[in-house]
Amino acid sequence: MGHVNALPLVAAAVGLSVVIVGYASPQESPAGAEQRVAALKQAIAESQARLRKYEWVETTIVTFKGEEKDRKQQRCYYGADGKVQKVLLSDEKAAAPRGGRLKQKVVASKAADMKEYMEAAASLIQQYVPPNPADIDSAKKREKVALKPGQGGRVRLEFTDYIKPGDLMAIDVDAAANALVVLSVNTYLVTPDDAVTLKVGFGALPDGASYNQQITLEAKAKNITVVVQNSGHRPVAQ
Q1: How far is CA 163 from CA 38, 142, 160, 168, 233, in A?
Q2: Over residues 100-124, mean pLDDT
Q3: What is the DSSP string of the chain?
Q4: What is the number of other CB atoms lying within 10 angstroms of the CB of residue 124?
Q5: Which of these, 169, 150, 214, lies nearest to 37 by C-alpha position?
Q6: 165 part of a folded domain
Q7: 1 assigned to some structural domain
Q8: Is residue 2 a part of any domain in this protein?
Q9: C-alpha torsion angle, residues 134, 137, 139, 144 (rounded to 10)
Q10: Count of the separate structural domains present in the chain
Q11: Of these four, 106, 151, 204, 222, which has the most CB atoms within 10 Å of its CB?
């Protein structure tokens, strides 16, 4: 597998940071779910505002059939247009396999297929992360939102048939601290056989902002795993 140029798209597609704001501890009731959904929508906007004063290092690791193929580091910060800007710090690619022209053509063809697949996966993930308030409202109107008890003091918001029939987006929240813990998505590209999963684990900054500490994207049909780690947050130099 060659270098997949769609990686920046994947990293951008999963750019989500959320701050959960205060509200009463919910029970298993529609009112509790309403409170959680309203807080989630508000939190997305508030978090983006807080994170604009930070810069950080994003490390993207790509593996194919369990073998690391690419490791890239980029400095990230928000530009004046409100979009995340990225400056390449390092890019380590696995050595290209040796062989004759036929083998090189096969490798190049597979790399092109991987690039196309990852671009499609990135486009799909953008529909889920960050959650679109309009899609959240649509799920709520269609009664596709459920509030469930979780483990270790967590509660879970589950959105079924969120973007595609049979998909699932789940958001785990620390009920006591009102802090987002994990966001996970089970979906597919064209058919359920093209399964794509996404898991976002969150960390907290000193000002209370929550950020994507680690993002894992798995395209099992292609044996591809992409891990994005964000660290080293610090205020942007004025």
Answers
A1: 19, 12, 8, 9, 32
A2: 72
A3: ----TTHHHHHHHT-----PPP-PPP-SSHHHHHHHHHHHHHHHHHHHHHHTTEEEEEEEEEEETTEEEEEEEEEEEE-TTSSEEEEEEEEEEPPPPP--HHHHHHHHHHHHHHHHHHHHHHHHHTTTSSPPHHHHHHHHHTT-EEEEE-STTEEEEEEESSSSTT-EEEEEEETTTTEEEEEEEEEESSSTTSEEEEEEEEEE-TTS-EEEEEEEEEEGGGTEEEEEEEEEEEEPP-
A4: 21
A5: 169
A6: yes
A7: no
A8: no
A9: 160
A10: 1
A11: 222
Instruction: Tell me the CA distances in angstroms from 103 to 1, 64, 93, 128, one per residue in order.
Output: 12, 18, 19, 38
Higher-pLDDT residue of 75, 194: 75
User: Which residue segment(s) compose the domain that 200 sits in?
Assistant: 7-235
Phi/psi class of residue 82: alpha, beta or left (left: φ > 0; alpha: ψ in -120 to 50)? left
Cis peptide before 192 (omega within 30 of 0): no
Q: Give the residue, 82 or 44, on which the prediction is more confident.
A: 82
What mean pLDDT, rounded, does the chain reach?
A: 79
**Whether this model's pTM surpasses 0.85:** no
